[in-house]
Amino acid sequence: MTVTVSGTEAPQTPPETAGSGAGEAETVGSATGGAAGEVADLARRARVASRSLATASRGVKDAALRGIARALGERTPAILAANERDLARAQEQGTPGAILDRLTLTPARIAGMASALGTIADLPDPVGEVVRGSTLPNGLVMRQVRVPLGVVAVVYEARPNVTVDAAGLALKSGNAVLLRGSSSAAESNATLVGVIQDALVQAGLPADAVLGVPATSRETTRALLGARGLVDVVIPRGGAGLIRTVVAEARVPVIETGVGNCHVYVDAGADVAKAVAILLDSKTSRPSVCNAAETVLVHVGIADEFWPVALPALAAAGVRVHADPRVLAHVRATGVLAVEATAEDWDTEYLSMDIAAGTVDSLDEAIGHIRAHSTGHTEAIVTESLGAARRFVAEVDAAAVMVNASTRFTDGGELGFGAEIGISTQKLHARGPLGLSELTTTTFVVTGDGHVRG
Amino acid sequence: MTVTVSGTEAPQTPPETAGSGAGEAETVGSATGGAAGEVADLARRARVASRSLATASRGVKDAALRGIARALGERTPAILAANERDLARAQEQGTPGAILDRLTLTPARIAGMASALGTIADLPDPVGEVVRGSTLPNGLVMRQVRVPLGVVAVVYEARPNVTVDAAGLALKSGNAVLLRGSSSAAESNATLVGVIQDALVQAGLPADAVLGVPATSRETTRALLGARGLVDVVIPRGGAGLIRTVVAEARVPVIETGVGNCHVYVDAGADVAKAVAILLDSKTSRPSVCNAAETVLVHVGIADEFWPVALPALAAAGVRVHADPRVLAHVRATGVLAVEATAEDWDTEYLSMDIAAGTVDSLDEAIGHIRAHSTGHTEAIVTESLGAARRFVAEVDAAAVMVNASTRFTDGGELGFGAEIGISTQKLHARGPLGLSELTTTTFVVTGDGHVRG
Question: Is B143 an 8 Å CB contact of chain A?
């Protein structure tokens, strides 16, 4: 099974972290006492705990993971009670149904979290893997070895299962973790962290390896972002607003995840049946996720064959098409419902049953459009031409490029990584699904016998 | 031979990039026209050029590298003339001799730059390397392939050879590069960039693949740091002041390089002869570089054997010892010159013939001291104990850990990478020497035949 830490979930921007003004950024570094002091104290405790984690054997870590899984089962009633208090408060505040759904825990969902921990325990330990090694001409023995990053902070939104999944992935990769969830899930998260800490201690690991950061104000997020030297990386799990805030304010390294304005390009001479199937899967199999398609571009040379099949299929699936003028002509011919595309549609990540539909006169125009509007997540081409596929792969700039396959395959589970903490859309460190290896760094260990350079 | 882009050179902080106030940071994003507009325009041109670079074959890139090398030889007189103008201006401004030396070009130094390009041409092309690949259970063919980052910006200090080395490494790895050198080297750099561009065009590559960024004001550095979406990574090559500025102001990803407060720990039961040789090499073989040792910690159990040999050797090499009270006692016994260590000494990167010398009562204390004062560059232990070596390697947190070897071995050339653009002290993306692979990212290329997830 796949363990996904809201990696492909629809983002939402929590009020306490969203859209901070640029002018406030400089308070991060200089904040003292209060939230910043509290967070620095938590980070210091996590840093101390990270030393034990870094040297813990796989056996100890896996035993802890399975212990947490057991404890989640045993303490399900307390977790559900805390979650009900969060839900009651959210309902009072008029929280939308979709967010309430994400916030809701059930016995089945808790069992799913426990099962995900078992999956993580079954994966190989990334720590200690020798990435490269050789004996140098002078006899020095060089090994580049994977080691934990140290202290990882995850800033995320409503879903409380992220608390457990992120803790599990951090633990397996030997990192201490600071979990800054949404205030809407505060009681659920606090209870889950308590369950995890008790199980850690039972396994002989420090409770401080997994610490919750209070979601009392956006200052606690800021303090994490400014905790240079205490926090090794911040991973924001959420929508574009959260990610913008994090990038603007962070003084610690960040791994960006998740915004996907994914395109499906249907080339001239594509197999229409394959193209329609790929488009429907990319758009409708789970529209709220970042690897769902948001724009379809169709080569003018296949439009007359493609649209009479695709438009009714999209309509039947409940997709609203935002059509350019040439697509609109087909819309009129087939009689399905659609709206006229505006300039903004080409940059919109709908995360809903909407798709922008455009016409291009050439492969070049398709590549140019995608380069202009892509968020660098996943881009797909449907083609029978080897040359077109080759050019598309070479010239599109994205974490993943699909040839005759759905955009939805950009997923750690689908690609065989077993677990993911998100999908990186940045180019440094990790691009694409973030697995356990991506939560590590490396050290060069060089062993000699009195060697000097002279 | 080794190609080093000032990777291990002593840093210096140029006035135009140093110590910007926190309150100024927010002007980066909102700067318009002037320097910011000019830099954005350069970055856009580089981005267009980067598309050609990304798909250029190794043959074309290597021909361009060899063409640049030839042109450097042919146009040596013009390069020297420009350099003389820079030197004259620097002398008028009373620039210190050490910096004048770095700024100075000679026919031999230009020949060295050309030869370094030949070395880069001989290295394998990182672009296109398949990092991992498999056929998935559903028949999808997955390959993770190295691709260029896109547009790389290098911000560096006086040495004009960085212009050529950075251009060569960027070209080989398929990246366009924006070179923001020091104003003190403005004429040398402009001439070198001109030589490079002419050779690029002759090789059929776009001149805009290598662009100089005017060093007219610190605003041009700021504009680079704020050019999100246009610049894929900024690599600062310089001292702690430059790196702090970059980290505080950057809205684009950064790879930090270079600050090294490196320790040599002499364990109880170490071989004294090896320990003295390693200490001397680590400190004195090139004191101005980031992999030089700055502190020696000696286990109390070996101090009586170690110091009577080490102190006279250090004194003979011209090293000034900043000694803790217990080391001072040995200093008095041997009659060499030393000063009393202050609290600041433990955090000072001298980059000179100075070393802090401390005494520890245990391996634990040594590890604790190093964890508290390390900059995460290189830490060394001299020991005959396998257990001590194992613990030191596991518990010290640095890009490189040396066992019975000089700290000076943290170097791309020494470790067999052939070329380096610096030594990363950060944990994300790349840690330790940055070679050609570290100037790339990856794309997942997934090929199917109409595959959908459903």
Answer: no
